[in-house]
Give the backbone structure.
Amino acid sequence: MMTKTKLDRNSLAVLEDKIQRITTDEGAIYLVGPIRLPVNLYGETVVFQWYCWLNGKEVIDDYVQIIDKLSSANLAEMQQSSVLVYGDFAHGDDAIIRLHSICHTGDIFGSKRCDCGYQLKQSMKIIADHGTGALFYLANHEGRGIGLFSKAMAYILQENGYDTVDANKQLGFVDDARDYSDALLVLKALRTKPVTVMTNNPKKLAALKEAGLKVSERKPLWGDVSEYNKKYLETKVNRSGHLKEEERVCPND
Ligand SMILES: [Zn+2]
């Protein structure tokens, strides 16, 4: 077969060894990894294993065909999700996971309007301290699934008196438009044993159970409450069905 790639036999062998295909209802997920990823976590170097995945509409057996499409696929214009794995995730008895929704303002800029950035670092630390786990970074979840540009609009409305839920509704969105199905298929590909889930959001637990996953425990993740995000956190509890067992309740779940 003629291909466009300049891929030599050795590169192909190396890549093929690190790609797995997960068939879905809509097509397939192509999961690439593990890739060694040393991370600076609160000043310490922690080594995670990193995987990234691509949601595809076609089920392709020949990975050369996938590689052929990459250079013209404009993937930088889309979002791809990924997962940081720590320890013996496939076999370890007691693994802890976190499904983290991307937050451009919180994770990257350290915005204090929410506390996603704080939670992201905290969950990586908890996973590393625990010894076995995975942090799923869900890139199609910006602003609870409404996208960054819409989130900017929602922030403007919030500055003018609307809470998180009402602001999203004003813009024509349901309160929470996030879908966990691809992440859960990736989780199943990486581990079949039960997991402990770090969350305060019952919707996430429901999504896990619906997907047939064994959830052994729920561990709340406390947030970083400040004057800037107090109202946002209260809205989560009062209007978005977040659990409130602790004094303080996590946010960007
Ligand atoms: Zn956030």
